[in-house]
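Slide 14.
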Amino acid sequence: MYLDKISKRLDAKRAAYSSSEHFMRDVEQIAVNARAYHDPVRGGIQRSDQFIQAANSMVAFFQHQISNSWMPIQEAEQAIQRAAEGLAEVSPLSLF
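Slide 15: predicted structure.
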């Protein structure tokens, strides 16, 4: 996972994230990748605490942003789910 991929998934035309949890899994994967690649204790080939700290800070930032916006996000996700369920129940013939 990398930032450009997350950015493309956030693109309104694609709407690839179905929930804030899905988004956070990708953000957290960046931190996991940073630790795997940059932490020599975990077998990383590069030694750079800066990348690990930046990735951890990014995770903390988005966790904070989501927790501060949790109710509106949760309400929006529920509305999207209800709309999707409602569309699934509509028969194409009932539109005519």
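Speaker note: The CA atoms of residues 20 and 66 lie 7 Å apart.
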